[in-house]
Write a structure and sequence with these properties.
about 375 residues; mainly alpha; 16 helices; about 0% strand; disordered N terminus
C-alpha cells in the first residue's frame, strides 16, 4: 500500500508541474451566470403549457357521434317490476271513458257508468286457476307475495339421542385400591423378618415370622424359617409344636413331616417318627429323600421288608445315591437275602461317593455275605 501511495503522489506532482498556474487537480463544472436563470425557467414553463394544450386538444377536440343529441340527465335505475301472481292471473278489462265513446254505437245502448279507478275489479270465474289466486283481492297488500311458512323439520331421533348422550357426563372411573391378601401380608412380614435376621436381630425376626403365621397359617416359608431358628436355639419342643400345627393345615407337606420325624428320632421316638411319615405319605406323593428316611426308620425297627420297599422307591427316583444302595444291602442282609445284598453292596461301590469309613464297611459286609 505504501508503494501505491507513493506512485499516486508522484503522478499528482507531475500534473501540477505541467498544468498552468491555478489548476486544481480535480476539474470543476463552470457555474451558470445568474442573469440566464430566469430566462431558462420561463422557457421550461412555456414548454410545459404547450404540451398540456396539445394533449387536451387531442383528447377532447374530436366530435362524438352522439354530440348533436341532447344528453339526457342520468336517472337512478328503478328496480324491475315484480310480477304479481294475483294481478297476472286476472285478465284486463277495457274501460272506455264517456268522452271517447264512438258515435257509431246504437242510440238505445245506455252509456256506461263512469268507472271508479279505485274500485276493485272482480275477475271472471276461472275454474282452471287455483282457488287461492281467484279469491285473493287485487289490493296493494295482496300484490305482495305471501311468504311461505317455514315447515319445521322433524327432529331425527338419532340427533336427539346423540344430544342426550352428549349432555350426560362421562362416567368417572372410581379407582379402588384392593387391600393385600393375607398371603401377601404374610410374605411381607416374612421378608422383613429375614432381613432382620441377616442384621443379627433374631428376636425381631422371630416376631415378624410369628405375625406372618398369625395372618396366614399356611405360609410354609415363615413356618420352616421359624422352626429352623428354634432348632438352632435348641428349642425342640416349640419347633415340634409348630410342625404339628403345620401338618394340621397341610397334612401332606413332606418337609414338615420330615422335620418332625427327625426331632422325634433324636428324642428316641422312632415309632412316632414312622407314624408321622406314614400319615403324610398317604396324603401326598413324596420325594426320594422322604422314602429313604422312612426306609432307614423301618430298618432301625428291623422292619426289613418295608425298608427294602422304601429304599427301592427312593432309588427309582435317584439311582446314583450310593448310601441308599448300602442301606438296601443291609436290609437285604437282615432279611437273609444274601444274593440281593451282594448285588446292592457292589452297586454301592460302583456308584462311588462313599466316605473311606463307609467304603471299608461295605467291603467288609460284601466279604461276609459270600
Amino acid at each position: 500500500m505504501s508503494l501505491i501511495n507513493q506512485m499516486l503522489k508522484d503522478l499528482e506532482a507531475r500534473r501540477g508541474q505541467d498544468a498552468p498556474p491555478g489548476y486544481l487537480h480535480e476539474p470543476t463544472t463552470p457555474a451558470i451566470p445568474r442573469r440566464r436563470q430566469p430566462l431558462l425557467l420561463i422557457a421550461v414553463l412555456l414548454l410545459a403549457l404547450l404540451s398540456a394544450a396539445l394533449l387536451w386538444e387531442r383528447l377532447y377536440s374530436s366530435p362524438s357521434p352522439n354530440a348533436s343529441q341532447e344528453e339526457a340527465p342520468l336517472l337512478p335505475l328503478a328496480p324491475p317490476p315484480v310480477a304479481d301472481p294475483v294481478s297476472a292471473s286476472i285478465e284486463p278489462v277495457a274501460v272506455i271513458p264517456p268522452e271517447e265513446t264512438p258515435s257509431l254505437a246504437a242510440p238505445s245502448a245506455p252509456k256506461p257508468a263512469p268507472v271508479d279507478t279505485q274500485a276493485v275489479i272482480e275477475p271472471p270465474d276461472v275454474t282452471d286457476k287455483p282457488a287461492a289466486l281467484v279469491q285473493a283481492p287485487a289490493t296493494h297488500e295482496a300484490s305482495k307475495p305471501t311468504p311461505r311458512p317455514k315447515t319445521q323439520q322433524p327432529t331425527h331421533p338419532t340427533t336427539a339421542v346423540s344430544a342426550e348422550t352428549e349432555a350426560e357426563p362421562a362416567p368417572q372411573i372410581e379407582r379402588r385400591i384392593r387391600p393385600p391378601s393375607p398371603e401377601q401380608l404374610a410374605e411381607q412380614h416374612y421378608q422383613q423378618g429375614y432381613r432382620l435376621l441377616q442384621q443379627g436381630q433374631n428376636d425381631a425376626g422371630e416376631a415378624q415370622w410369628r405375625v406372618a403365621l398369625g395372618i396366614h397359617p399356611t405360609h410354609h416359608h415363615s413356618r420352616e424359617g421359624l422352626v429352623g431358628l428354634l432348632l438352632q436355639q435348641q428349642r425342640e419342643e416349640e419347633a415340634a409344636a409348630l410342625l404339628r400345627e403345620g401338618l394340621q393345615h397341610l397334612p401332606g407337606h413332606g418337609r414338615f413331616a420330615m422335620l418332625l420325624a427327625r426331632i422325634q428320632l433324636e428324642q428316641q421316638q422312632t415309632a412316632a417318627a414312622i407314624d408321622t411319615l406314614e400319615r403324610s405319605l398317604g396324603q401326598q406323593r413324596q420325594g426320594a429323600e422322604y422314602h429313604a428316611l422312612l426306609a432307614a426308620l423301618y430298618q432301625r425297627e428291623q422292619r426289613y421288608t418295608a425298608s427294602i420297599e422304601s429304599y427301592r422307591q427312593a432309588l427309582a427316583l435317584e439311582p446314583q445315591q450310593s448310601t441308599w444302595w448300602m442301606g438296601l444291602g443291609i436290609s437285604h442282609e437282615g432279611a437273609s437275602q444274601r444274593e440281593a445284598a451282594r448285588e446292592a453292596y457292589r452297586e454301592a461301590l460302583q456308584q462311588g461317593g462313599l466316605s473311606p469309613q463307609l467304603q471299608a464297611y461295605v467291603q467288609q459286609r460284601l466279604r461276609a455275605v459270600r
